[in-house]
Amino acid sequence: RVREDSQGTYVEGIKEEVVLSPGHALSFIAAGEEHRHVGSNNFNLLSSRSHTIFTLMIESSAHGDQYDGVIFSQLNLIDLAGSES
């Protein structure tokens, strides 16, 4: 559930995991797929009945004397459940 408090909007029960490889990240996507709610309708046998939010946060830095900072990037992938009404 999406909630709001004095500090802003957040997703209740959300987890943040550290991954060190693309395969490890894909394992979390697969786990999320297993928890998705689906149902059938006139248009689709496996219609999504739940929203999915996958946020990838990347922290990167260069080694050596040329660059001394850290770059933070964020990619949000959002799949909203359909509405057939």
Protein model, in words:
- The chain has 85 residues and is α+β, with helices and mostly antiparallel strands.
- It has one domain.
- It is built from 1 helix and 6 strands.
- The strands form 3 sheets. A two-stranded antiparallel sheet has the order 1-2. Strands 3-4 form a two-stranded antiparallel sheet. The protein has a two-stranded antiparallel sheet with strand order 5-6.
- A hairpin with an 8-residue loop joins strand 5 (52-61) and strand 6.
- The protein is elongated, with a radius of gyration of 18 Å.
- It starts with a strand and ends in a 6-residue tail after the last strand.
- GO terms for molecular function: ATP binding; microtubule binding; microtubule motor activity.
- One of its GO terms (biological process) is microtubule-based movement.
- Residues 1-85 form the Kinesin motor domain.
- InterPro entries: Kinesin-like_fam (IPR027640), Kinesin_motor_CS (IPR019821), Kinesin_motor_dom (IPR001752), Kinesin_motor_dom_sf (IPR036961), P-loop_NTPase (IPR027417).
- Belongs to the TRAFAC class myosin-kinesin ATPase superfamily. Kinesin family.
